[in-house]
Design a protein that fits this description.
One of its GO terms (biological process) is heme biosynthetic process. With 180 residues, the chain is of the alpha/beta class. The protein has seven helices and eight strands, in the order E-H-E-E-E-H-E-H-H-E-E-H-H-E-H. Helix 1 links the parallel strand 1 and strand 2. Bound molecules: flavin mononucleotide.
């Protein structure tokens, strides 16, 4: 099906902006409706052919994913695409961990899942997130420095040096999936 012929809803839940940025890029590219997750009720989605849901990753959970997982039966005839935005590097292991943590076997079979890299700026976090991240830092520091792998070192470095991996080109596989 071509871009114009499907009615697409792009729904997002974003805490610090990167998921929103990806959702805006996707909605613009496919001429979809951009909707903020908390405003959406499942009944509002019946007119759409394709539901694209994006949520930021917090402790492996995809924010707002319940809109899909709690209403799966009502949405079962629709094309469903979920994307999660996190800071971890893209590895098959990390992606499988996110999928297994958030979806049942039945849902896994029916949706298309994508992982996109976002941004992290410790100074801009709210108090609770700062405390959570400090706890994670403390846990990591309990390990000996020499045992830290490159990804963990990069994570620790990002507390002092903000990182931003958001990249419009990264949405290409999602656009391709919508247009299938
Ligand atoms: C408390 C906390 C927990 C996080 N947990 C994860 C995680 O489990 N995996 C990951 O890849 N990124 C994690 N991140 C990084 C965020 O997912 C990343 O900053 C993302 O860009 C946030 O999306 P948003 O800007 O749309 O809110 C975490 C960030 C915070 C503050």
């Amino acid at each position: 099906m071509g871009e114009q012929s499907k009615k697409v809803a792009v729904i997002y839940k974003s805490k610090y902006g990167s998921t929103k940025q990806y959702a805006q890029w996707i909605a613009r590219r496919v001429q979809g409706d951009l909707l903020e997750n908390f405003r959406v009720k499942v009944d509002d989605l019946q007119d759409y052919d394709t539901i694209v849901l994006g949520g930021s990753l917090h402790a492996v959970g995809i924010k707002g994913v319940e809109l899909i997982t709690d209403n799966f039966r009502e949405l079962k005839n629709k094309q469903i695409i979920v994307f999660a935005v996190g800071c971890s590097p893209v590895t098959e292991e990390a992606i499988n961990h996110i999928i297994n943590h958030n979806f049942t076997e039945e849902i896994k079979e029916r949706i298309n899942f994508f992982y996109l890299r976002g941004a992290f700026n410790y100074k801009k976090l709210n108090l609770i997130d700062k405390l959570l991240m400090l706890a994670l830092k403390f846990k990591i520091k309990m390990q000996k420095k020499g045992e830290l792998d490159e990804d963990t070192k990069a994570l620790l470095d990002s507390y002092d040096n903000p990182v931003d991996f958001t990249d419009e080109e990264a949405i290409a596989p999602i656009i391709e999936s919508i247009n299938k």
